[in-house]
Amino acid sequence: MRALATFILQGRLQAIAVVYGLTLLSSVSSLISLFSTAAVILPTLRKGAGEGAIVLTAALVLLAVTFVGLLGISPRPVGYLLLLWGSAWLIAILLRESRQLSFALVGTTALGMLTVVVIYGSQANPSEMWREQLQHAVQPLLTSERSNAEAERVLKGLEQMAQYLTGIAAAGSMLSVILSLFLARWWQAMLFNPGGFRAEFQSLRLPVAPVYLWFGLLAVAGLGDRTWREIAANLAIPPLILFLLAGLAILHALLSKTGAGRFGLVGIYLTLVLVSPLALLIMLIGLSDVWIDWRRWLRPA
């Protein structure tokens, strides 16, 4: 990792080559795309917005030539990368200028919520769009061997899920940007401030405004008419990622004080994967921290 981060910062051409190469490799594994986005963020964090913009633009041009000119495929992936890297670039600038991880994460959440607004503004019925895509995806599973009642239950479940997929998709894209931001920030700390990212993440605490906004969205989701309920419910999904990360930061800080260290963290993340309701508890910890300040109990008297 250190060698890769060092190579990216050696020069503009090196950074462009890494972003381009990793993006091509991401067709093998989607996890590699986190590294390509981080390779856009790192020069932005270290050298500024202009350098990041040059790396981003040059890599996009090379990919457009490769995808459209050489391979003859749709330019749609390049458009998606423009949105993804553009969002990551903006968040990197926010972190570089504010030097506060919480501001960067709130900014990412705002972009996720803006995505929901844009989708509802550009699509007459997003939930219907998602329902059709889901139904098409599972249609082979709804064979004639299944009873009509069972197939009806599956379709009803898909219809309910489709109402919230706009918010879920926005939250997923938002999480992708955040993970790449964390990776790039870790690279930067590893090279110039060892241990800095660990301390920065463990001290993460959210401002209170996003929490009150979230409660307002819940109120609209519960009291508004059908259309506004659906929009508000989808807008309320991206902030859940913010609360989850804040809760995880508190747990990281707690374990570092108790000496549980890496073994405790591995246990938490394994439990989080195996027992998904644990995420709700961690979100509650992160959300309530704006009032309770859980780290206060970790400080010596």
What portion of residues belong to β-strands? Answer: under 5%
Task: Give the helix proportion (percent range).
Answer: over 70%
Structural class: mainly alpha
* Global outline: globular
Order of helices and strands: HHHHHHHHHHHHHHH
The count of strands amounts to: 0
Q: Please tally the helical runs, counting DSSP H or I stretches of 4 or more residues.
A: 15
> What is the C-alpha radius of gyration, as a whole number of Å?
21 Å
Mean pLDDT reading: 89
List the uncertain runs. Answer: none
- Major sheet, described briefly? none
Q: What can be said about this structure in brief?
A:
The chain has a domain at 1-98. With 301 residues, it is mainly α. The chain has helices spanning 2-10, 12-25, 32-47, 49-70, 76-98, 101-122, 126-138, 148-162, 165-192, 196-202, 209-223, 226-235, 238-258, 261-274, 278-292.
3D architecture notes:
The protein has 301 residues and is an all-alpha fold. It has a domain at 1-98. It is 81% helix and 0% strand. It is built from 15 helices and no strands. The chain has helices spanning 2-10, 12-25, 32-47, 49-70, 76-98, 101-122, 126-138, 148-162, 165-192, 196-202, 209-223, 226-235, 238-258, 261-274, 278-292. Helix 3 (32-47) runs antiparallel to helix 4 (49-70), helix 3 (32-47) crosses helix 9 and helix 5 (76-98) packs across helix 9 (165-192). The longest helix is centred in the middle third of the chain and has 28 residues, at 165-192.
